[in-house]
Design a protein that fits this description.
alpha+beta, six-stranded mixed beta sheet, five-stranded antiparallel beta sheet, 23% helix
Length: 354
């Protein structure tokens, strides 16, 4: 069985007739990691995946797997396998025929193919489905069949191109758990493309946020969510309130910023007089009586309250004109309230780089 391998992208670039789809992307993925390329349409994430799979050649840069340069290697000669967005299953073949197709192309014997196919189907929860036709398979089963077909070739790196996009919400969440289970069981490196932020946070060890062909921010899900580095990352991964302000004082690794919510202190270094942007996640904002250590944001004029199950989503403005978004316990906001004090928990303010 092929072992997982470290993946390294070095200045990877793709241009199309003067337009830059991927702009000098450099990234190292530790072996056995589950990495998600996350971004909106046109951000370059699928182009990166296609270059990894050998379906698109880069204009410049290098791709290495386990130290070996595979930049110009054809797809069949790479230690990768791809699960496509539309699954690309053969309707005239059985489930077993689809899963074992790549092994038959390699000239493997029937008995050995049958053993590998049975093991792959068992891994994805479809033991005994081999004789069935593709037309008999549901959407979720087809996704598993496509996954088994890729895994049966024992790739060092599995590439997944928005594999859950065609599934309903319940099945999508179930398959997120299945993908993580399979990745941990196999210990392989997975590279998964999606535009779904919740999906990325549910499955990834490492999230790479892409924007306009470049890496905007990257790191473990918790770090990206709690401490985004840029305005785009703060807005794309989840929701944030952004407060524009001016640095009034600085020292000892902290700055005081004059904002529409008053003067607020935050970790970071900027020169007095600098214009800065602070981000607040809605979970860090509290309405009602504050707690020790929290920073006052002023009185919030409530504009909209939306019940969303375990929390209510509250939006409004403070006296200085700043707009705030909060996700709070339904019990903390009495029905019909028009104005309420707002605070932010200690550490809930983030100084953005741009």
């Amino acid at each position: 069985m092929s072992a997982a391998a470290e993946l390294a992208l070095e200045g990877l670039t793709k241009r199309y007739e003067g337009a830059v789809a991927v702009d000098a992307v450099s990234l190292t993925v530790p072996r056995g990691s589950y990495v998600v390329l996350l971004g909106p349409s046109g951000s370059g994430k699928t182009t990166v995946l296609n270059m990894l799979g050998g379906f698109t050649l880069p204009t410049a840069g290098c791709i290495r797997v386990g130290g070996a340069d595979i930049t110009t290697a054809p797809p069949a000669k790479r230690p990768t396998a791809t699960v496509f967005q539309d699954y690309a299953l053969f309707p005239h073949l059985t489930v077993a025929g689809n899963v074992g197709f790549g092994l038959s192309v390699r000239g493997m014997g029937r008995g050995e193919i049958a053993r590998h196919v049975a093991a792959a189907l068992a891994l994805v929860g479809l033991a005994g489905y081999g004789p069935r036709g593709i037309a008999q398979a549901s959407g979720g089963q087809r996704q598993r069949i496509a996954l088994a077909r890729a895994l049966v070739t024992e790739p060092a790196i599995l590439l997944l191109d928005e594999p859950l996009g065609a599934l309903d919400l319940s099945l999508r969440r179930q398959m997120q758990d299945e993908l993580r289970r399979i990745q941990r069981t196999e210990g392989r490196t997975f590279v998964h493309v999606t535009h779904d932020q919740e999906e990325a946070m549910a499955i990834a060890d490492l999230i790479v946020i892409m924007n306009a062909g470049r890496i905007e921010d990257m790191g473990p899900p918790a770090r990206l969510y709690e401490r985004p580095r840029t305005r785009f990352a703060a807005r794309f991964l989840g929701e944030s309130s952004l407060l524009e302000g001016t640095v009034a004082a600085a020292g000892a690794g902290r700055i005081a910023v004059d904002t529409p919510c008053g003067r607020l202190e935050v970790e970071g270094e900027r020169a007095p007089g600098s214009s800065v942007t602070l981000a607040l996640r809605p979970e860090a904002v509290r309405v009602g009586a504050g707690r020790p250590g929290e920073l006052a944001l002023g009185e919030l004029a409530v504009e909209e309250v939306v019940f969303q199950g375990g929390f209510v989503r509250v939006t409004g403005t403070v006296a200085g004109g700043g707009r705030l978004l909060a996700k709070v316990d339904p019990q903390s906001l009495p029905a019909g309230v028009a104005r309420v004090p707002a605070t932010v928990r200690a550490g809930g303010l983030v100084l953005l780089e741009d």
